[in-house]
């Protein structure tokens, strides 16, 4: 945060007036909107933490416009952040579109100098996290997100790519260091030390925060995960795959905002989904309208999580069996029947290792949402502070055990059982 | 090998006549050589596999000139190889010089376009492998190579570097794919399948080669190592750190030829040293002049190997304790006494994991030298074919067990004991 604000020639932040003029010069966008600029409505709606976001509507249709600012929007100019994040977002979005088709928004236009992406307006899609707080079920989601993760992770890994193409991707994303550093600091470091940006439900959880900061086992475990995040270039990650990066309806899923993309450990993306489902599950007690009203939805959350992992595992394995095109585990070594059988065993073992990484990264993501800077509205919106602190204490306790005793969580079933158990074990923070 | 020969404008391979004219235009080189070009002697001595190497001597001193060819010298134009390898060698050599001072040759001049490096002439240094075949003891070597490995690996890792500097190094070396692919193919793949380039002591070892190709456990183990080589960007590796890449006298050590450099798993470099010491140890029986004549030297080889690992481990740990400047294991998390003690335990555990990687990579390097394309003269120069096959069978057997049962080799002592044991167990291939 000590760097100065980036100046880029020709770049200027848009406002609704400049944006209308800008968009009127782009044929593809005019075609989507229809009519003439005076007929368009433009609203700045950025509710994320980093960027400007505009919704533009015309007689024929709408677009969303996302533009990077040279600083963190939430904080202001005191926290500079490079405009290049739009470049990485566009690169990742393009790759995700190639691999998953309609699971990401369509890009109408990209302007590197303006750090600006014009994309499909997602309507009536809503941010998934808000839907889950309102107990909305999404029957397609497990299938969609497991496809998204399996395809983006598999096809950008050494299992699918030759080494030269993989290294080219590593080089292409290596410059996204400022965004990676946000993750390194806010997820893997700050929650475990006294840091200005940390916040938590205080004073209720003060003793938890102190104990977590003094927990040697936990700090070693999170540091091992951080080392993996820094040095394991397994596949192209979305990098911020929480339920706030998903817009959907019960019929349709879109994954958005991959500006944190880089080549990293697969378990980080899968763990983000696991963490956000567990947090939502444990937050439901804070949103219960009447006794028992959310029992069914709470089960849906956990069962959907199970389906996500199970489907992801099966799809990833199927992709591996059907597309063994990478330089890792070269198929020419395992051609005969015994070799093929041994390779299949190894595929299962590979998924077990990926699961262990997932458990660890999920735990890190849960803890940062309670003791670090950025919190989840799943928990933040619980009005009763005592109840919120209790929900958070459960999440902290579960996450701490998942990170330190990862080997005890050898399956999604053990995680589900532990999530259920911690609700029973901790009646009050 | 399907690519065509690279054409680079302005590049031309040197010969002794063109080289004299070329060097006469470089003040730094003229100063070293002294006199005038007619007084210089120039000999092409390239005994490596890839490049042109010239020794140039003048009245005042000498230089070595290394120039990349756009193909593999050993094979010819049918195997193209990019000239950029000189760029990566120069970059690695510069970094190694910064980190280890006199443990690498001094660079007098680098010409990117000509893919040419003029460096210190190492005289009377000889290639270490030749010295070890002649049973020469090198009392300084364990100290020097352990320093070289500890400093180059530690200071280019996430333990010492901030993430942005580390990622910049990853990007800088990501283009060295052609050289990495040689390793990927010749070390991790070809020896375990029928491949045109494979060769071994035949027919003596035919059944060994066939069994190694059919060994499912072994092929999975080597494929896991290959995946680590492809995806773990832990530190800047020399990439080819065998005893043929070391020139030395009993008083002085120089590590040469880092053209395979890239950001990879540390155990690959350490394993290269371990493998070459084990191969030399097991080759000594083939060079015995009279009964018992090499017993002392054989012990020196194994004891030196023990000193190398032990000193490397201690030096790496000391560097970590004294320079905790990297983003991994941030020191701010472990400031108080209990945290510091827990971090010290983790440092030991880190070295244990690095040792396990080392054992695996060493095994891969041993097997490729017996069943793959490039062999070691330690074994190749054994005149008695039966004896050579027996030495090789011992090395294969030891290496196979190290790779498949790595956990059983938890210390350098267990490796030493196994090396001694395999000499007793296998009397004849």
Structure, described:
Chain A is α+β, with helices and mostly antiparallel strands and 429 residues long. Chain A folds into two domains: 16-120, Phosphorylase Kinase, domain 1; 126-425, Alpha-Beta Complex (Aminoglycoside 3'-phosphotransferase, Chain: A, domain 2), CATH 3.90.1200.10. Chain A is built from 15 helices and twelve strands. Chain A has helices spanning 16-24, 27-33, 85-100, 128-133, 141-155, 163-173, 177-186, 206-213, 216-231, 266-283, 295-322, 337-371, 377-380, 385-404, 412-425, and strands at 41-44, 52-57, 62-67, 71-72, 76-80, 107-111, 116-120, 126-127, 235-237, 246-248, 253-255, 262-264. In chain A, the strands form four sheets. The first copy, chain A, has a five-stranded antiparallel β-sheet with strand order 1-2-3-7-6, with helices on both faces. In chain A, strands 8-10-11 form a three-stranded antiparallel β-sheet. In chain A, strand 1 and strand 2 (52-57) form a beta hairpin. In chain A, helix 12 packs antiparallel against helix 14 (385-404). The first copy, chain A, starts with 15 loop residues before the first helix and ends with a helix. The model of chain A has no long low-confidence stretch (mean pLDDT 96).
């Amino acid at each position: 945060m000590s760097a100065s604000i980036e100046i880029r020639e020709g770049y200027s932040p848009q406002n609704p007036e400049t944006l209308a003029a800008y968009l009127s010069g782009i044929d593809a966008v005019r075609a989507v909107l229809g009519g003439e600029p005076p007929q368009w409505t433009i609203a700045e709606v950025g509710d994320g933490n980093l960027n400007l976001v505009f919704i533009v509507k015309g007689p024929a249709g709408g677009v969303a416009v996302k533009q990077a600012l040279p600083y963190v929007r939430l904080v202001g100019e005191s926290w500079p952040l490079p405009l290049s994040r739009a470049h990485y977002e566009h690169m990742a979005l393009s790759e995700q579109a190639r691999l998953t088709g309609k699971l990401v928004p369509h890009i109408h236009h990209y302007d590197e100098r303006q750090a600006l992406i014009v994309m499909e307006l997602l309507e009536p899609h809503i941010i998934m996290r808000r839907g889950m707080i309102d107990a909305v079920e999404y029957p397609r989601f497990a299938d969609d997100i497991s496809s998204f993760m399996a395809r983006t992770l598999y096809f950008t890994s050494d299992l699918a790519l030759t080494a030269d193409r993989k290294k080219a991707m590593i080089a292409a994303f290596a410059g996204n260091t400022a965004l990676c550093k946000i993750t390194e600091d806010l997820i893997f470091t700050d929650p475990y030390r006294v840091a200005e940006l940390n916040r938590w439900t205080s004073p209720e959880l003060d003793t938890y925060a102190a104990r977590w900061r003094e927990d040697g086992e936990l700090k070693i475990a999170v540091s091992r995960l951080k080392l993996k995040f820094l040095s394991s270039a397994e596949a192209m990650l979305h990098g911020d795959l929480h339920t706030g990066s998903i817009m959907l309806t019960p019929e349709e899923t879109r994954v958005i905002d991959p500006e944190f993309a880089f080549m990293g450990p697969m378990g980080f993306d899968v763990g983000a989904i696991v963490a956000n489902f567990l947090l939502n599950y444990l937050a439901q007690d804070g949103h219960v309208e009447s006794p028992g009203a959310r029992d069914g939805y709470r089960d849906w959350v956990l069962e959907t999580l199970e389906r996500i992992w199970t489907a992801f595992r099966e799809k990833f394995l199927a992709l591996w069996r059907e597309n063994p095109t990478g330089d890792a585990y070269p198929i020419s070594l395992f051609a005969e029947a015994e070799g093929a059988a041994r390779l299949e065993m190894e595929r299962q073992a590979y998924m077990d290792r990926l699961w262990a990484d997932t458990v660890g990264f999920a735990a890190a993501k849960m803890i940062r949402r309670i003791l670090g800077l950025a919190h989840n509205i799943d928990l933040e919106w619980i009005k009763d502070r005592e109840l919120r602190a209790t929900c958070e204490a459960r999440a902290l306790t579960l996450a701490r055990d998942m990170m330190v005793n990862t080997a005890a969580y050898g399956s999604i079933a053990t995680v589900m059982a532990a999530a259920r158990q911690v609700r029973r074990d901790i009646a009050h923070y």
